[in-house]
């Protein structure tokens, strides 16, 4: 065991107990009741390193929220893992919900997950969903698209289902991002079987890239590799629950849960191997090493990593001018440590981070509205918060 890994093991063993849940698995589905420590009273001004902001609680009645999307008419759609799409209008939760939502494998971490609009939504009307699809052999991460007619989904069409199905209730991924060319990227977790991540013969533990209609791009890296799934863009991932595309730098970012320690923020590039489980900065939940290696030739290093784990979930890139001090920062939700990490990146390199909304609850989703406001969804308690600039 290297000295470096030995230090990581010691830190994880000493510190992780404070953020682990349900037998030490920090990325589980437990939803403890609680009260946020940071005051979310409307109008209260909070000072961060580079911005002052106020927090409005839109609702505190969410159940396992997962994804947030903004319609051009001003409505906000919020997914709940059990299979609901809620509607927020004028910053008020509506009694009406979106109808015709597909059936989901609402088991463990599975269910209805992310929701994103096509970049050209105003012209084509496509809404994309990721969810765990039920089957005879368990569930599988699935991507579908549909259109909205009033409050009803219409023309639902499945574009992709990760193979193979698995009875496991963990590690589905599954976030969606589009690049400036209209390709769709989405994440698929390794479903709790770590060896899947290095196997190009399945879709598990991978970032997938498709045309927006589900076709496989001919320039995907493994299209001509015998036995490999042609949809794969990158591999060696564990459970990526954050994915954003920076159109300015043309960079795809993901974050993913490590085991006990070793959560990662990665710059995701074509055909590259991100190492799980051959390299990791984490250890097993029982305290035993998974590997003694934190690096290997041919495997990518994270831009930054967290030990102990913050259990990252949800991710937003600040692109608007509403919060100029945060522009181009990455906002990462934290389930275990219950905050939003504001991560500063310069020229693709990690600079520093700051905690926002400390102890607010288990942050499941973070999103920037078209106007530049920041929306945060939490569970335990189940809230939708809106951050606005304060002078």
Automatic annotation (TrEMBL):
Which keywords describe this protein according to UniProt? Signal
Output the SUPFAM superfamilies linked to this UniProt entry. Answer: Soluble quinoprotein glucose dehydrogenase
The annotated region (Disordered) lies at: 23-49
- Signal sequence residues: 1-17
Q: Where is the composition biased (Polar residues)?
A: 31-42
Q: Where is the Glucose/Sorbosone dehydrogenase domain?
A: 62-385
Question: What Pfam family does this protein match (any one)?
Answer: GSDH
Task: Indicate what this protein is called per its UniProt record.
Answer: Sorbosone dehydrogenase family protein
- Record organism: Chryseosolibacter indicus
């Amino acid at each position: 065991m290297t000295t470096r890994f030995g230090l990581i093991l010691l830190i994880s063993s000493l510190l992780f107990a404070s953020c682990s849940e349900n037998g030490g698995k920090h990325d589980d589905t437990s939803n403890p009741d609680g009260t946020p420590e940071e005051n979310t009273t409307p109008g209260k001004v909070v000072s961060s390193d580079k911005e002052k902001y106020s927090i409005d609680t839109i609702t505190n009645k969410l159940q396992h929220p997962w994804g947030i999307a903004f319609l051009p008419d001003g409505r906000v759609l919020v997914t709940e893992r059990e299979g609901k799409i809620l509607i927020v209008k004028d910053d008020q939760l509506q009694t009406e919900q979106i109808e015709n939502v597909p059936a989901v494998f609402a088991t463990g971490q599975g269910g209805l997950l992310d929701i994103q609009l096509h970049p050209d939504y105003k012209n084509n009307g496509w809404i994309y969903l990721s969810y765990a699809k039920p089957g005879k052999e368990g569930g599988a991460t699935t991507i579908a698209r549909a259109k909205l007619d009033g409050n009803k989904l219409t023309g639902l069409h499945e574009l992709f289902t990760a193979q193979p199905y698995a009875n496991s209730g963990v590690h589905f991924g599954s976030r969606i991002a589009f690049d400036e060319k209209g390709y769709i990227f989405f994440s698929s977790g390794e479903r709790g079987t770590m060896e899947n991540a290095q196997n190009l013969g399945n879709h598990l533990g991978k970032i997938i890239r498709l045309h927006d209609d589900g076709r496989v791009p001919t320039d995907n890296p493994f299209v001509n590799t015998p036995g490999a799934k042609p949809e794969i863009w990158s591999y060696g991932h564990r459970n990526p629950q954050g994915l954003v595309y920076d159109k300015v730098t043309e960079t795809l970012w993901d974050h993913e849960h490590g085991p006990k320690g070793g959560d990662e923020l990665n710059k995701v590039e074509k055909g590259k191997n991100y190492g799980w489980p051959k390299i990791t900065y984490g250890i097993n939940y029982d305290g035993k090493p998974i590997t003694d290696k934190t690096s290997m030739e041919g495997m990518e290093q994270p831009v930054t990593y967290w030990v102990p784990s913050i259990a990252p979930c949800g991710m937003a890139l600040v692109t608007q001018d509403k919060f100029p001090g945060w522009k181009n920062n990455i906002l990462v939700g934290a389930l275990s440590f219950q905050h939003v990490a504001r991560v500063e990146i310069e020229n693709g390199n990690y600079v520093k981070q700051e905690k926002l909304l400390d102890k607010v609850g288990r942050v499941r989703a973070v999103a920037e509205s078209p106007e530049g406001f920041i929306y945060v969804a939490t569970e335990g308690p189940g809230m939708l918060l809106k951050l606005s600039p304060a002078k």
